[in-house]
């Protein structure tokens, strides 16, 4: 009986510590030019965080706990007229058995690309925008017949 009580107390302490830990935090900011809307879609293996639209100067953030199996969050961003500029990247990744608590990730969308920082250093350009507009022919298209 004493062993069972010790195991139950240990489980209760672990659950209490798990609920008390700080969550990880991912933050996006639209630093694009005036009237340039930023479209964001993020998802993990467990959750689809939906699509969010940010006007210049606006922010979007979410928090979560790491999974013991590995936490990976992929995001897609679009901007420009008709959302023709695109970037897809891994916004967060944990190491699996090494759980992070209170980790802060900052992504800043600017005209030349997506910048990254943990908040302690100057943001660094990580990803450039890809132009997804249809190919424009410089000369007349060849006839098929």
Tally of structural domains:
1
From the alpha-carbon coordinates, what is the Rg to the nearest angstrom?
A: 21 Å
Oligomer: single chain
C-alpha geometry: elongated
How do the strands of the widest beta sheet line up side by side?
A: 4-1-7-8-9
State the separation between the terminal residues, measured CA to CA.
88 Å
CATH class identity: Mainly Beta
CATH topology tier name: Immunoglobulin-like
Write a structural description.
- It is found in: Secreted.
- Belongs to the plant self-incompatibility (S1) protein family.
- This protein has a single domain, classed as Immunoglobulin-like (Sandwich).
- A hairpin with a 6-residue loop joins strand 8 (113-117) and strand 9.
- With 145 residues, the chain is mainly β.
- Strands 4-1-7-8-9 form a five-stranded mixed β-sheet, with no helix packed on it. Strands 3-2-5-6-10 form a five-stranded antiparallel β-sheet, with no helix packed on it.
- The chain is built from one helix and ten strands; from the N terminus they run H-E-E-E-E-E-E-E-E-E-E.
- The radius of gyration is 21 Å and the shape is elongated.
- The protein has one helix at 2-20; strands at 24-30, 38-44, 48-54, 59-64, 72-79, 85-93, 104-110, 113-117, 124-127, 130-131.
- 17% of the residues are buried.
